[in-house]
Description:
mainly alpha, two-stranded antiparallel sheet
Amino acid sequence: MAARERQSRDYLRRHRLPELLQRLGALLLYHRPENPREFLIQALGRVQAGNRSEGEYPYLMDEGNLAAMFGLLDVVGQGHITAAQHREALKTLGLSTEDLQIGDDVNITLDVFKEEVKKKMLESWAVY
């Protein structure tokens, strides 16, 4: 690999640009705004405001989406999912499971699921 290419890859990795672009692309596809450029400018503004604790980060999943996702995982309607299902859901959403403090024998309720997903989403935006 050439030095210039290595520097470029290091730059992208250091600033987490592929992840940021993936998140922004997901937001675009989810919301499908009439003016994508203005939408992206506003989304980046929300990231900055969130970093300054002056606003909220952009959300890809709202309460209804999270409840629907939980329902798909809780196929028999027990009111809970397994820790393994919870981890896989976080991974599917592109969220980190590294510091997840939930044992394998713990059942996750809808409220815990929503809280954890929102927390992980906030953590994921906060790095930019």
